[in-house]
Specification:
The complex is a heterodimer of chains A (about 110) and B (about 120).
Chain A lengths: L2 E4 L4 E4 L4 E3 L1 E4 L5 E7 L6 E6 L5 E4 L2 E4 L9 E3 L8 E8 L8 E3 L3 E6 L1
Parallel strand pairs in A: 2-12
Antiparallel strand pairs in A: 1-4, 3-9, 5-6, 5-10, 7-8, 8-9, 10-11, 10-12
Chain B lengths: L3 E4 L2 E4 L5 E7 L4 E9 L5 E8 L5 E2 L8 E7 L2 E6 L8 E9 L7 E2 L3 E5 L1
Parallel strand pairs in B: 2-11
Antiparallel strand pairs in B: 1-3, 3-8, 4-5, 4-9, 5-6, 7-8, 9-10, 9-11
Classes of the chains: A mainly beta (about 110), B mainly beta (about 120).
């Protein structure tokens, strides 16, 4: 079945450092890929998405490129801020699970210090 | 916009009792809502898909008689954990898909259930 693997955290960075959170997936067909962010005490929010190979999703300075050849969707940001501290989830939908159902990775906690 | 609330945010109950968790879409109508369960340091696992006015669709391995789902209106779905036991302790998260938009789901903040 479909699955998502993302790097374990926590990832600890200083403000203005470069961020990469790795995400790889296993899926049949052509899934859509997502990054969600969960700030403390809040629900998951969609951060960005990509629906086909080579698409780049971007939002709030974060980017991720849908790489079908490496089955990856790594999240990057050039300069993190303290306010980016949160848990980040990689997810997919589609393939053989249908486009309504989301399959999540385990989440990666990001801690940014001043 | 697109806010989803859950109530309660946390609950502690005794083994054998039943607990009801509410999921509400505050500013949109949602024909479809989803219920997830999250264990510490693990991913969100979809438990069931709830459709307004019809029976929920449960994922493989989820006991439908233990986790009762009711989606009686376009803004409210409830999850009742019946005869709860300590192994049911978990973080339960709902999401809602607006009736009038694409496939994006909007998530509630979650409910922490602890069964003693």
């Amino acid at each position: 079945g479909n699955s998502v693997t993302q790097m374990e955290g926590p990832v600890t960075l200083s403000e203005e450092a470069f961020l990469t959170i790795n995400c790889t997936y296993t899926a049949t067909g052509y899934p859509s890929l997502f990054w969600y962010v969960q700030y403390p005490g809040e629900g998951l929010q969609l951060l960005l998405k990509a629906t086909k190979a080579d698409d780049k999703g971007s939002n709030k300075g974060f980017e991720a490129t849908y790489r079908k050849e490496t089955t990856s969707f790594h999240l990057e940001k050039g300069s993190v801020q303290v306010s980016d501290s949160a848990v980040y989830f990689c997810a997919l939908s589609g393939g053989n699970t249908g486009f309504q159902k989301l399959v999540f990775g385990t989440g990666t906690r990001l801690l940014v210090s001043p | 916009g697109a806010v989803v609330s859950q109530h309660p945010s946390w609950v502690i109950c005794k083994s054998g009792t039943s607990v009801k968790i509410e999921c509400r879409s505050l500013d949109f109508q949602a024909t479809t809502m989803f219920w997830y369960r999250q264990f510490p340091k693990q991913s969100l696992m979809l438990m069931a898909t709830s459709n307004e006015g019809s029976k929920a669709t449960y994922e493989q391995g989820v006991e439908k008689d233990k986790f009762l789902i009711n989606h009686a209106s376009l803004t409210l779905s409830t999850l009742t954990v019946t005869s709860a036991h300590p192994e049911d302790s978990s973080f339960y998260i709902c999401s809602a898909k607006p009736t009038r938009s694409g496939n994006e789901q909007f998530f509630g903040p979650g409910t922490r259930l602890t069964v003693l």
